[in-house]
Write a structure and sequence with these properties.
20% of the residues lie in helices and 35% in strands. The protein is α+β, with helices and mostly antiparallel strands and 383 residues long. The protein has three domains: 85 residues, Thrombin, subunit H, CATH 2.40.10.10; 110 residues, Trypsin-like serine proteases (Thrombin, subunit H, Beta Barrel), CATH 2.40.10; 94 residues, Pdz3 Domain (Roll), CATH 2.30.42. The protein is elongated.
Length: 383
């Protein structure tokens, strides 16, 4: 019995010593392999020093993409010539005392090296002082050279060198669907804001009041907000094709709220108006010399008038073209030249198709008679 136990013990011991010996031999072999730099490939090599770093591979290269587009190129061309227009309107005397002066703001665009700047009349109307802020933040005082309320155009002038001049394009070449860019200072704070849209339509007319329509306007869906007035509408060639002037929101009682209805004055019109403002300080319009009231179907029914549309003459200026033509108080003008006065052809629009010195035939209703009178228009007195 004891012999069997001792024998088993010796067998186990010999096996253990054999295993231990193998481990020691294996460890020595590994040690020798390491000592001779025989490192398995699965073990990573240490990172090289910066001077030994390999060249960048395609996986870690920074790729710079050219993002120039016709839009960005147009903005780069015109943007430096866009300015913020700031005016100060004097306080008004009221029952409670004099109100404080208050600022107004809009946009404008430089059109000549001499420092002439286009903007809207309504931006600078009634202001006692005006300044402009260039795209780089420089502020400079400006003079109002001239303004025209009918076209809603004003020309300013600054002294000294200007940062850039915007080229004027041809608004007659615009087509619906063409991409256009509006640049300006919405709310007076976000100068040189860029919005993009299309020409929605051309030749639009908007009622300014019951007696006059702004005609031939460019309609666009490029976002235009308060403060954009006077800023340029630009085509993809980097040319000014219009001066932004108004938006239509709707939202009145019983009407829907509209978005994307902005309007700009065609630059061809602006060019002609601004040239007169620079040369004379005012725009030469035909002068008739009457005080008048616009007649609509509602007014005609109320007062029993014999026509639905026309202008009722409430006074004639002495020595005026109207007096020389034979017009009298109480007459109703229903046609000027070939244009019948109606909802689509208000009196002022029909009158301003003529130039000072031109002749026209007026159709006049006097009592139960319909008369024709020849008139030679004078020049509207300068403001």
């Amino acid at each position: 019995m004891w012999k069997k136990i001792i024998y088993a013990f010796l067998v186990v011991s010999l096996a253990g010593f054999a295993a231990l010996g193998g481990a020691v031999v294996g460890g020595v072999a590994v040690y020798q392999g390491i000592a001779h730099q025989q490192i398995p490939l699965s073990i990573a090599e240490p990172a090289p020093t910066p001077s030994e770093a390999p060249a960048a591979t395609a996986a870690n290269q920074i790729i710079i993409t050219d993002i120039e587009t016709p839009i960005t190129e147009a903005v780069e061309k015109v943007g430096p010539a866009v300015v913020t227009v700031v005016g100060i309107v004097p306080g008004q005397t009221t029952f409670f005392g004099t109100t404080p002066d208050h600022p107004v703001s809009g946009s404008g665009v430089i059109i000549s090296e001499q420092g002439y700047i286009l903007t809207n009349n309504h931006v600078v109307e009634d202001t006692k002082e005006v300044s402009v802020i260039f795209a780089d933040g420089e502020e400079r005082p400006a003079e109002v050279v001239g303004a025209d309320s009918f076209a809603d155009i004003a020309v300013l002038k600054v002294e000294g060198e200007v940062p850039a001049v915007a080229p004027l394009g041809n608004s007659d070449a615009l087509k619906p669907g063409e991409t256009v860019i509006a640049i300006g200072s919405p709310l007076g704070d976000f100068k040189n804001t860029v919005t993009v849209g299309v020409v929605s339509a051309t030749g639009r007319s908007i009622d300014v009041n019951g007696n006059y329509q702004m005609e031939g306007l460019i309609q666009t869906d490029a976002a235009i907000n308060q403060g954009n007035s006077g800023g340029p509408l630009v085509n993809l060639a980097g040319e000014v094709v219009g001066i932004n002037t108004l938006i239509v929101r709707g939202g009145g009682f019983g009407s829907a709220v509209a978005e994307g209805l902005g309007f700009a004055i065609p630059v061809n019109t602006v060019r002609a108006i601004s040239q007169q403002l620079i040369e004379k300080g005012y725009v030469s319009y035909p002068y008739l010399g009457v005080r008048w009231q616009w007649i609509t179907p509602g007014i005609a029914r109320r007062y029993g008038l014999p026509v639905e549309y026309g202008v009722y003459i409430s006074g004639v200026a002495p020595g005026s073209p109207a007096e020389q033509a034979g017009l009298q108080k109480g007459d109703i003008i229903t046609r000027i030249g070939e244009v019948n006065l109606n909802e689509e052809h208000p009196f002022i629009n029909a009158l301003y198709t003529f130039a000072p010195g031109e002749r026209a035939t007026l159709e006049v209703v006097r009592g139960q008679q319909t008369l024709e009178m020849e008139v030679t228009f004078g020049e509207h007195p300068a403001p």
